[in-house]
Amino acid sequence: MGRAMMVGAVGAGKSTLIAALKGDSLNVRKTQAMEFDSYTVDTPGEYIENPRFYRALMATALQVKDVLFLQDATSERCIYPPGIAQSFPCSTIGVITKIDHPEANIEKAKQLLKTVALKSNDVYVVSAINGQGIKELKERLARE
Ligand SMILES: Nc1nc2c(ncn2[C@@H]2O[C@H](COP(=O)(O)OP(=O)(O)OP(=O)(O)O)[C@@H](O)[C@H]2O)c(=O)[nH]1
Ligand SMILES: [Mg+2]
After folding, report:
1. C-alpha separations of 66 from 42, 85, 119, 124, 142 in Å
2. CA distance linking residue 19 with residue 42, whole number of Å
3. Cβ–Cβ < 8 Å for 117, 85
4. Does ligand 1 have an atom closer than 6 angstroms to the CB of 75?
5. Ligand 2 centroid, distance to 102 Cα (angstroms)
6. Which of 46, 73, 101, 114 is deepest in the core (most CB within 10 A)?
7. Which atom of ligand 1 is nearest to the CA of 42?
8. Phi/psi zone of residue 34: left (φ > 0), alpha (ψ -120 to 50 degrees), beta?
9. 72 Cα to the center of ligand 2, angstroms
10. Which atom of ligand 1 is nearest to the CA of 97?
11. Which pLDDT tens digit goes with each residue over 104-117?
12. What is the Å distance from ligand 2's center to 38 Cα?
């Protein structure tokens, strides 16, 4: 399995999703810097929220197989600059997070995520809390 890099707003659920994919405890802390392991790269939400860090994200993407663009299903805001996925030198996957939440609006989140302009319409709908969609996403990440 190649590496997967998580990108998304502060609090979108990047670190929690990594923990769910690995079967670790979901009690994660706020991410302060890029964190690498064999299968994942976690990034602080501030990196995609601030254009000053875009170059660092693109450079790191050279070391991964897939970049996952997370969109929180409970959020009304989309922090992505239009077309950002097209600038990444690897496969791009959309992930709608927190679908277990009573206020989740999956259709709205899919609409907001369109801003990133994924290279193919490859969107997964997940909950780290109840595990919905995690198996499907894992299978996608394992694909060559
Ligand atoms: N209900 C629900 N809450 C979630 C889910 N995933 C994450 N959360 C919650 O969302 C909050 C933020 O999660 P994080 O994983 O720290 O978010 P992050 O994207 O890593 O945030 P930064 O590190 O600040 O960029 C935490 O309180 C999580 O418990 C989910 O699938 N369902
Ligand atoms: Mg984090």
Report:
1. 12, 11, 11, 13, 10
2. 10
3. yes
4. no
5. 22
6. 73
7. 20
8. beta
9. 13
10. 31
11. 999 999 999 999 99
12. 17
Tokens encoding 104: 């989740």
Q: How confident is the model at residue 2 (pLDDT cuts 50, 70, 90)?
A: confident
DSSP state of 30: P
Per DSSP, the chain holds a count of helices (H) and strands (E) of 5, 6
Which residue in the block uniquely carries the two structure tokens 């992930």?
A: 95
Q: Which residues contact 31 (CB under 8 A, 6 or more apart)?
A: 14, 15, 42, 43, 44, 45
Residue type, 98: K
Residue 36: pLDDT band (50, 70, 90) is very high
- What is the C-alpha to C-alpha distance for residues 115 and 69, in angstroms, rounded to an integer? 11
Top mutation candidate among 7, 10, 16 for ligand 1, by most atoms within 8 Å of CB = 16
- Binding site membership of 8 for ligand 1 (Cβ less than 6 Å): yes
DSSP assignment letter at 133: T
91 touches ligand 1 (CB under 6 Å): no
Architecture of domain 4-142: 3-Layer(aba) Sandwich (3.40)
